[in-house]
Design brief:
five-stranded mixed β-sheet, about 55% helix, elongated, about 325 residues, mainly alpha
Length: about 325
């Protein structure tokens, strides 16, 4: 094998006596003790167990080196989970997490998986309790779903689905490599949520009928300004149900108090009775916050992926 080439040593992982060196694809050399590598990574544990003639390493003047396919940023992050003296990241970064997870799976480093799941749970809890907190899950729900599915992280998949069903439609455009069947399943749930709210809007924007099937709305005179407001109110709700079908936004729009300057009519107040009736029948708040029941095919796939992910039993 040709000697591995490098341009410079990593300042965070400088040369150590008797150490082992990993060289990134962009030429940065990282030094770390081989015993630490073997303890934290099943891949390196197996590699160092092989006879010297079978190891795909190159020996330099005073240490052994191994050329890696990962770039320096991915390798640096991976080694922070292998070296116990290095601080771990506090948050999940969308631009680096995919490569980090793939490297952890390739080199069998369970510490990365545990950190991802723990950090994910904290971010989800904070994000749900504080509307102003923009967590990894709320900003990247599709990427979150793909990674949790990759690791067989069931709770993360459930939380990601909840977020995808009601997030802004623009977040569905993120360029993410994801299982096609899983993507279509989530899209179906999203369509059902949209239709759920659109059905409410149709009930509120239509006429009310008495027990004798007489139209109640004919008893209430509205001016031209009210008619325009009614049309705009209905249009806005329909758009919201399509673009971001979240109950807090839908209910806020329905209950908004915009009064007509001519006749003093508030359309939300005018429709308060059928709105309350719909809430009592449909229970939107509990229905939309309920954890989805995963179909058997998805539950089984998560079980398989969890077995394939790096674990402590290794």
């Amino acid at each position: 094998m040709e000697p591995a080439t490098f341009t410079e040593d990593s300042p965070e992982f400088p040369p150590v006596q008797g150490g082992f060196a990993l060289i990134s694809s962009d030429g940065i050399r990282f030094h770390i003790n081989s015993s630490i590598l073997a303890h934290s990574s099943r891949f390196f544990n197996d590699l160092f167990s092989l006879p010297s003639s079978e190891q795909s390493t190159t020996r330099g003047r005073d240490q052994t080196t191994l050329s890696m396919t990962q770039n320096s940023e991915t390798l640096r992050q991976l080694l922070t989970f292998i070296d116990p003296n290095k601080p771990r990241p506090r948050a999940i970064q969308a631009h680096t997490i995919v490569n980090l997870i793939e490297a952890a799976c390739l080199y069998r480093v369970p510490a990365v998986v545990h950190w991802f799941q723990d950090t994910y749970d904290v971010a989800w809890s904070v994000g749900r309790e504080k509307v102003t907190e923009r967590s990894f899950i709320s900003e990247h729900p599709l990427l979150s779903l793909a990674l949790c599915f990759r690791l067989g992280f069931k709770r993360g998949v459930e939380q990601s689905i909840l977020e995808l069903v009601e997030c802004n439609v623009d977040k569905w455009d993120e360029d993410v490599e994801i299982n096609g069947r899983l993507f279509n399943y989530c899209r179906k749930l999203r369509q059902e949520r949209t239709m759920f709210y659109q059905g409410m809007v149709e009930k509120l924007s239509g006429h009310e009928y008495s027990n004798s099937h007489q139209i109640k709305d004919t008893n209430k005179e509205i001016c031209m300004s009210c008619a325009v407001s009614r049309a705009q109110w209905t249009y806005d709700l329909m758009q919201l149900a399509t673009e971001e079908p979240k109950w807090s936004l839908i209910s806020g729009k329905v209950e908004s108090t915009e009064w007509c300057s001519i006749c003093g009519l508030s359309w939300s107040e005018y429709k308060s009775k059928p709105y309350r009736k719909w809430i009592n029948v449909s229970h939107p708040q509990s229905k939309t916050s309920r954890t989805p029941v995963l179909p058997p095919w998805l539950d089984n796939a998560l079980g398989v992926n969890a077995l394939l992910a790096p674990g402590d039993e290794e």
